[in-house]
Each structure stands twice: as structure tokens, then as C-alpha cells.
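Hey, can you fold this one?
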Amino acid sequence: MPQPSDCRKFLMLPAVQPGADVSPAALLRALVALADEILALRSNPFPIHRRSAREAIRQVGAILEFLADVRGRGSALPASAAVGFSELHVALQKLRHLLRDCARPGARLWVLMRSELVSNEFQVLVRSISTALDVLPLASIDAAPEIKELVRLVREQAWRATVGTEPADAMAMRSMWSILGQFKNGIAPNRIDLRWILDHLRIRNWNDCSEEIAFLEELFLASLDDGDEEEEAALLGSLMAFMVYCRVVLFDAVEDEKSSEKQPKAGARAVSHVNLDHLRCPISLELMTDPVTIATGQTYDRASISKWLKSGCLTCPVTGEKLANDSLVPNSAIRNLMEQFCHEAKVPIPEPNGKPKRDLTRTATPLSAAAAGATRMAAAFLVHKLAVGTNQEKNKAAHEIRKLSKSNIFNRACLVEAGSVPWLLYHFSSSDPWIQDNAVAALMNLSKHPSGRKAIVEAGGLGLVVGVIRVALRVEAQQNAAAVLFYLSSDEVYRTEIGRMAEAIPTLVELLREGTYRGRKNAIVTLYGLLQCPDNLRKILAAGAIPALTSILSSDRADLVNDAVAVLAKIAEGHDGTTAILKSSAVPHLVAFLRSSTSRSGRENCVSALLSLCNNGGMKVVSLLEQMPVLMPSLYSLVTEGSPQAGKKARSLLNHIHHLHDQEDLAMMGLVDLQ
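Sure. Predicted structure:
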């Protein structure tokens, strides 16, 4: 029997109406399976609407006894039973959705604040169950008398039942509105009140808070895509800020942080025993970026299987079995293995197809006055802990700043305004590697904001950032410190300041030579930013950047090679840069790259570099290129298949070479002297 898609909006209760030609026996089988699914939910705690959920599950349990008894007897069912079974099937589908939503981890606060809607849905569904049972022709159905009496009792109780928001839930909701009002007015709420609400919701620790925040953020992003009312988005923003404030203020430690750092090592050992074919989608044969499992238990990439299903194919591509439903369940185990494999193989982790990148500009302003107040108070609390807390508190504060500033522009502004930058810089010299790592990562996020970059420079932080690149306690801190310089180099004034520091550019070039993949990546893009200031070119050449970049051209990391080519193209624009490149072995590598690369931007940067070398180096460079036969086909390919800009540069380079040929022909005739 067809099932509704699992991709539904939270607290929306879609259902599929069984067709008129579905037999009562088929409906009976479907109802038994559906009731079993609902009863499986009874182990959930249901912190909100507990009484309504328990009562609904109890009623379904009684109905299942009736259905199982009827099926067990095997007697023929009257055709008139189809109407009641169909109505019951629709009601149970909706009830299953509602119970799953009420039991969903991370959704407790939102369910509380939507109590009126949830109560109304329970009321409607309970009445729907009563109506469905009322139209069942019990007298014509073969079942034990006591079972039939149980059905009549459930029907009467369901009809008389009055479902409403439970008193404790209503009190918690009123307390929430009161606290949001305090945030709006800049008043810090009483911690006892915060604790009472969290206890009522059974939110016990840091991880529970994070789970709630993640769910609310997911709902918020969905509301933006759906064009929902601003009022709902504002409430979601207020609730997210409330949970952030609770996580920051009420919990002393971040759970499982150090243990999580150790997990990749164990996982890496597991990856070595995994057959790579198991990580490929059976349809596309590519690594699965968003693996999902279908009803047969087979796993596919979401984009591929979704296309398969939308084309009307309702069978499993591997087994050929007909699908009981079209639900797609995320397979986090395969996703984790795929990420670990990419980490081991040192290849970029591909992003799931079809998932648009989040538009951070939407986070530039707070969603509500309550959200703004809560965020500012949380920021002030964290800065205080950075300044006077214990080492554990300082580490947690730095970690919280790191998380809050990762993908929210308003959070970054609040944290900078609260004075976090000087204290984060202070902890760059911490002897605790975790504090240093979190402080550097937090500052990297803040350096993405103009006020953050200004605060770093005004606090004299450039030297500290360069120092961490040189002597970080953990390699992650070194990589993130290089990223701080990259964001600073986006500003014309700051890239000049960085260039004036004696150790800055040599440190970046050393990281380019000896760093990890991510360290080298950050060093390359930072050097590119610094090259926007002409005064930095001489210092970059003196530090030995050309040999380091040339060595990367032989790397098997395509993105690193593309970035190195872009930097060489920028260097080649000047006469000093051209001279330095020609003294190295870079030119043959550039020609080889132009022939083998499939990157449009990489090939354009490469032909730019070669053209600059010719323009600045004269006929000797053209003569050198003319002796490389693999170059000409690559240039003709760019002329016909490349972008307009790349084609124009390729034609210019071809003209240089053709001009050299003409000069050589004239020289052979004694008409010109190539010397």
C-alpha cells in the first residue's frame, strides 16, 4: 500500500487515502503493521503531552488486539468493513506522524511552544479513530466477543475524551514567554527558572541543548525556504537563542570533546577494512555524498535514488523488489565511513548533491529582540569566563565562541562587541593545547567579520597569530592561524601590515613547504591575498615561494595545484616575478598542467601565467615554449572550448609563437637577425 513521503514539514500530518479497490484483507494487513509501528513508540519518554500520547498509544494497543484476533481467525471480511478500515488507516497514519514528532529528539522545546496545535491534533485524531470504529460492521466481523466489547469501549472513550494542554506543560510555556520577555528587555533570567524548564523538557546536559539548537535551526532554514510567516521565524530565533543561553550559562563542560578527537583514529582503522565499492552508489557508481536506505535495506545516494523514484520506478534497483514505501532514511554510518575514507585518502569530502549552501547574509540581523538580548548576554558571560574562569571554564568558553561564530554573522558581531578578541589572543599562549586550539579556531571565525579583523589588529594580534603558525601545540591550531591571516589579507590595510612583519611571509612559505594539506591550502590562499599589495612581491620571492609553489605542481591534490597556479600567475604579472619563475623549473610543470587539467579556472590561470611570462620575458620565453610540442594542442583547445577570457589569452599566446615562427623563417632567408 502506498505511503506518504517521509519529507514532510514538522507537525504536518499527511496521509494517503487507500484506494476504493483495496480489499478489506489488504487493509487489515496494513493496519496491523501501522499499529505495530505506533506501539513501538511507547518506549519514548514523551516529556510534552505525555498523557495524550500515552492514551493514544493505549487505544491503538486495544485496536491492535482486535485486528490481530480478526487476522488470526482467517475468516472472510465483509466488503462493508473497507470503509471503516480505510478511515482508521488514515487516522493511524496521522497519529504515527504526530507521535513521532512529539518523541523526536531535539524537538521538545518547539513541541512545548506549539502545545495548542498539538493538543488540537490529538483531539481531532482521537475523534477520527472513534468515528472509524463506529462505522465498522462489528456484527459481521468474526472476532471474540470480549474483543468486540473492547472495541466498543475504546470507541466510546475516544468520543468522550477531552484532550487539552496538560497543566505542567501550560505552566512551562508561560514561563518560556516570560523569559523571552526578559531577554527582550535586557534582563538576565533567574537560573532556577531556566533549570525548571529544562528539567520539565528532560534536557539534562550540553549535548541535549545542542540537539535542540540543531533541530530549531533546521526548522528555521526550512521556514525560510518555504516562505513561512515572519512571526514563526522570529519565534524560532528566540528559542534558539534561549537554548544557546542555557547551554552557555547552565552547563560547565562540553561533553565528549576530547573523546571525539580520538574517534577518527579508531575509525581510520575501520576504513582500511572497508571495501570501497560499498561506499559507492549502485546507480551512479560514485561515492555516496548523502547515503539513504530504502525499504529493502539497500543504500543509495539520495540524488540518484530520488531521480529513480521520480521517474516512476517503484522497485529496488539492486534487488528488483517492489518497494513497500518510498521513505528515504539517512544512513549516517555509511556517511561517516565515507568521510573517514576521504580523510585517509586526503581528498576533499564532497558535499551532498542538491543541497544549497546556507545564505549567511540572513544571519546578519537578529530574528527578534529576545534573540538579540539573549545572544548579547551569552557573549558577555563567555568573555567573563575567558577572563577569570578556571582552565576548564576557559576552554568551554572558547569552544562555545567557536561554535556560535561558525555560521552566524550577528553572533560574530556580538562576540567582538563583548570584547572576546583580546582574551582569545591572550589564550594563544596557553600551555593547554585544547584551550589554544579552541581560541585560534574561534578567532578564525571572528576574523571573517570586519569588526573582528579590526579588533585583532588593534589588539596587536598579528604577531601572536604568526607565532601560533610557527609553534602551535596542535596542527589544527596552526592551520586555523594561517586562515586568520587569509581573512586579514582580504583587507588592503591589513595585508600591508602583515607584509611589514619580518616573520609573517617566511612563516607562510615554510608552512607551504612543510605543512599538512589544509595548512598548505591556507598558506597558498593567504599568499595570493598578500600579493594584492605590490610591496609584498619582493618579500614573497625572497622567502623562497617559487620553489615551494613549483613542488606543489607535482602534487596529486588537484585543488592545491590549481591554487598554486593562480599564485604563480599573479607573481608572473611583474618583471621580478617573471625572472624568478624562469630561474625555476616551473614552466614545464605549467605546460604539463595546461595539458592535463580539467579545471576551467585552473587552465585560465595557467595560460595567464604563460602569457605574462612571454610578455615580460620576451622572445627567449616564446622560444622556450615553442620547443614544447604539447603546448600548441592545449592552446587550440582553449581557443575553441575555453571561456571567452581564456580563449583570448590563448590566442595571444599563439600569436607570440606564430610571430616567432615568422621571424625564424625570415631569418633563414637572411632578412632579419633574431639576435
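Confidence is low (pLDDT under 50) at residues 1-6, 257-271. Let me know if you want another pass with a different chain boundary.
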